[in-house]
Design a protein that fits this description.
There is one protein chain. With 169 residues, the protein is of the alpha+beta class. It is 39% helix and 23% strand. It is built from 6 helices and 5 strands, in the order E-E-H-H-H-E-E-E-H-H-H. Strand 4 and strand 5 form a beta hairpin.
Length: 169
């Protein structure tokens, strides 16, 4: 397979990517849109950690916040840059929610991604670049602390919180 870097693949405006994981984040379902855009076959994904397509340019703090929120039973929204099997990438506006059994037991998580607004990416990409740089400069042990502090200071400067900021884009 030829590895393609820096090639953006885009979702159609009416297309949704849906994935489901178990409580540990291992993929148990993925729809055809996800298979098409990611370039993986279903059998390559099922049972694998969802971060199989994590793009290295995504700040780790975003995923830390995601796990904190969804494990507490709340939804989480974020713009996520994902890597395809061939090295190309795509952006999605993601809504991640906990999934429960009929008896109320947590059984996993569902992510629904759609085409992001260009204007939102114009804000998110520079922010993520700054967060990623702060993580790299702080080193592995202090990466999360550094990017969380930077993100919090940016949100405070805009007099908003994370949810209001993301949903306003």
């Amino acid at each position: 397979m030829t590895v393609i870097k820096d090639k953006l693949i885009t979702l159609n405006d009416d297309e949704f990517i849906v994935t489901r994981t178990d409580t540990r984040g291992n993929i148990i379902y993925c729809n055809r849109s996800f298979l098409k855009i990611s370039g993986y076959r279903e059998k390559e994904l099922l049972g694998q950690p969802h971060n199989i397509n994590r793009h290295p340019e995504m700040p780790r703090i975003i995923f830390k916040m995601m796990w904190e929120r969804i494990q507490a039973g709340n939804e989480f929204c974020a713009y996520i840059k994902s890597r395809c099997r061939d090295g190309s990438y795509f952006w999605g506006f993601s809504n991640i929610t906990p999934c429960h059994s009929p008896s109320g037991e947590l059984v996993g998580y569902q992510s629904v991604r759609r085409h992001p607004r260009t204007e939102a990416l114009d804000v998110v990409i520079p922010l993520y670049d700054e967060l990623l740089k702060s993580e790299q400069q702080a080193g592995l042990e202090r990466a999360m602390e550094a990017s969380q502090k930077l993100l919090q200071s940016k949100l405070e400067a805009q007099r908003t919180d994370y949810d209001q900021f993301i949903l306003s884009l």
